[in-house]
Amino acid sequence: MTNLPPRKFSTSSKTSKQDSTPLQILLQMGFPKNRVLKALAATGNRSVQLASDWLLTHVNDAFIDVEQPREYIFYASPTGPLLTQLREFWEKSKVVSTWNRAHNFPPHITLVSFFKAPDEASLQLAKAVKQVVEMVGDPPMSQLKLEPYVSHNFMGLFLSEEHAEYLKKIAVQFVKEVSSILGVKVDTYEHLDALGACFPWCTMAQEKDISTNLEAHVKSLHITLAYHFEASAYDSLKKLVEELRPETLSSWELRLYSRDSRFANHLVHKVTQSYVPVANDELELVIGDYIYIEEKQFDSSPDGWVHGTSWLTGVSGYLPAVYTQRTAESDAWTLHRAITLGNNLGAESKSESETDADMASYPHEDLAQEKSEDTYKDWEKYWKAVTFDKAEAGILNVIGDKGLGLKSEKACGNGDTASMGDCKEAKAKDGKERRWILGMRHGERVDLTYGAWVPYCFDDNGTYVRKDLNMPIKLSERKGGKDSYALDTPLTRVGHLQAQLVGEGMRLNGVTVKHVYASAALRSIETAHSFLQGLQADPSVKIRVEPGLFEYKMWYQTKGMPTFMTTQELHDAGLNVDVNYKPYIDLDPNTPETLDEFFKRNELVMQSAWNESHAEGGNIIFVGHAATLDLMVLAFKRLAQGKTDEPNYQISQNLLRVPYCAVGAVRDNPWEVVSPPCPPSINSSSARYNWKMLLDI
C-alpha cells in the first residue's frame, strides 16, 4: 500500500474559527478595544456572547471608557459537606445576630489579598491558577484539619500548621506568577513591592493605577465565621460554632475572583421588586440585578430613596431602598477560574447540589426578563374590565394593539384579527387573507437554570439521572451522548410549559399556524413541539428543522459549535419533525461568519419560507433565539422595501430584553409590526429548596 504523503497546509487554509480569539471576534463586531477588554474581564473571559451582552447592557454606563483596573482576590474555598455546613451557619447567624462582615463573602481561606490588575491581564491571571497547581504539585494525602476559635470580636476555623504548608506554597507561587504578569519585582515571599522591573505590563502597571502590593497569606490561615458582630450576639454565635463539625470530609477549590474596584467600600443590594423610573434621575430596577450603594446613603436619606449604581448596566440613579435587599458583596463578583484540588484533600467529587454559583455568575441569555410597570398596568386594566365591566375576556380587546399605528384588534373566528366591531381588516384590500408571520424565542433552558449540569446528571455509564423536578424526565439517545447535551441543551419542564402556554393563548384567540420552522438547537425544536401541543395543531403540521435560524456562530468560538441531533434522532425522541424537509441553509460549524452573514442566512430562510408558502397561505412561525424577533422584523421590513443590499447588521439592544418564549408579530399585505395574537407571560423564579432546614424546627 502506498504511504500517505504529508499534506502541506497553506497559511490561509489553517485559519479557522479556533484561531480567532474572543478579543478579535468582538473587535470584528465593531466594539472599541478598551470596551472589549473591560467586558471580557468583567465576565471572566467566559465567552464572546457573555462579553457582547455586557457591552450592550453597559451602553449607557458613564464610566465604560474610564480605565479603572479591577481588583482580584485568590481563595481556597471548601466544597461539598463542609460548605453545606458553613452555608447553614451563615443563615442561622443572620437570624441570631445582625449582618456582620463575614456575611459579605462566601466561606473561604484567603491566600492572596485584593490586588489591582489591568483588563488586558485577566485571562493570564486565570491561567496562572492552573499553572500554580501544576508547579506546586499534588496536595497532601491527609484531610485538612480545621480548629474552631472563639473570641468576643472574632470567630473562625483555623487551619492547623501541619496542614497549612501546601496552601502556603500555593499562595507564594501564585504571587510570583502574578508579579511576572504585572511587572512587579518580588521582594519577599510574604510581601511583594513594585520596584519597576520591566515585565510585560510594567509601564501599564505604573500608568493604570495597578496595585503595587501583592500579599501572600502564609500566617494563621483560616475561615472567618463572624466578626464585627454585636456583643449581645456572642453567646448565640458561640453555640452555633460549637455545633459545627469541621472534621467533615470535604474537597477544596482554588478560586480567583474579581470585583469593580470603584465599589470596594459599597454595600451590595439585590433587586427584589422591579421599578420603572418616573423622573430623569431615577434608576430602573430589574429583578435579579445588584445595586451598589454607599452605607451613608441609608443614614442620610429622608424619604427611603437612596442613590445607587446598577451592576447590570453601570447606570446610576435614585431608587426606593425598600425594593432591594442586602446581600453578600461577593454576589456581584466575577469568578475567573476554579480549580478542584486533588482527591487527597477530601471527597472524590462535588456534591450533586454544589456548583460554582455561590456567587452570581454573569447571566446572558436570560439576563433581563423585564417585568415592566406598563405590563402590570395592562393586566390591571384587563382584570378590572373582566371583573367589574364584564367585558369580553380577551386581553387584546382591553389593552388594544401596540403596533405601529394599528387600531385595537379582536379575534375573528377564522383565526385572524380585526378592528373592534368588524372583521374586515383581517383581509387586505385585494381580498386575500392577511397572514401572521411570528418569531418566537425558545423556552427556559436547562444549562442556564442549573449551570454545569451534565457532570452531575449522567452516571459513569452515560445514563441520564434526573436530579430536579424541573429537569427533563428522560433524555433520548443521540450521537455524542452527554457531551452533545452539554453544548446543545434541552428545555426544562417549565420551558415546555412556557411554550405550551403560548400555543394555548393563540388557540384561544382563534389563531392557527400552518408552517413551523425551528432553529437546529434542541431547545428551539422542543419549544416548537410544545407550542404545537398547546395550539392543538393537526399532526400534519410538522416542524421544519432549519440550521439557518441558529444563533451567531461566533458566540460559540471558545466552547465549540454543538453537534445537532439528526431529524431521525429527533423523530425517534418523539418530536414532531418533518424528516423529509430539506433546509435552506447547510450550516458549516467549522467556518467563521460575520454579523452580516449571520443576518443574511436568517433573512434568506425567513423570506424564502414566506415566498414559497405564499400560494398555499397560512400563518408562519419561526422558533429560534432571542435575536430571532429582531431578525424577523428587519428581514420583512427589507422585503417590504425591496432591499437586497448588504444590511450592515448590528446586534440590537433589545436582545437582552427578550424573555423566554417571547413572541414578535408581523402581518403582510400591507407589512406592519403588530401586537402578537396572544397575551404575554410573566413568571417568578424560585431558589433551590433544602429540606434539611426542617431539622432545626
TrEMBL record:
CDD domains: HP_PGM_like (cd07067), SH3_UBASH3 (cd11791), UBA_UBS3B (cd14301). Residues 17-58 form the UBA domain. Keywords: Cytoplasm, Hydrolase, Protein phosphatase, SH3 domain. This is Ecdysteroid-phosphate phosphatase. Residues 264-329 form the SH3 domain. PANTHER family: UBIQUITIN-ASSOCIATED AND SH3 DOMAIN-CONTAINING BA-RELATED (PTHR16469). It is found in: Cytoplasm, Cytosol. It catalyses: 20-hydroxyecdysone 22-phosphate + H2O = 20-hydroxyecdysone + phosphate; 2-deoxyecdysone 22-phosphate + H2O = 2-deoxyecdysone + phosphate; ecdysone 22-phosphate + H2O = ecdysone + phosphate. One of its GO terms (molecular function) is ecdysteroid-phosphate phosphatase activity. It comes from the Eukaryota. GO terms for cellular component: cytosol.
